[in-house]
Amino acid sequence: MAVFFIFTKMKIRIKDNSIRFRLTKSEVKKLCTEGYLQSTTELNTATLTYAIQVQENMQSLNADFVNNKITLLFPSAEAAVWNDSDRITYENTVILNSGNSLKLLLEKDFICLDHTHEDQSDNYENPNKTC
Q: Is 0.85 surpassed by the pTM of this model?
């Protein structure tokens, strides 16, 4: 069986012990229907891959890092409903083996209120937008 990856525009933000993924409308739909998203960032000496994978038998977000790949694990029960819901964010704080905590966020990506050169045509309408 061949496996094909469609690369996405999903955003990832890492700050200290927190990781946030932001997804456009089509990315949320793809994650909820196909169960997997992946993107990469190339460097001279390695490639960082970041992915979201729908996972059975989970209650909340979790994450793993193997072979230069960060994988955010998303509960299948939530993936079954997220695309059609008004819910914006999923979050969880995981206690690591070291005793430290890791904060995980998965969010729908809104249109920015300030000026940006980024294509935002697939982003969600910002609820703070005033007409």
A: no
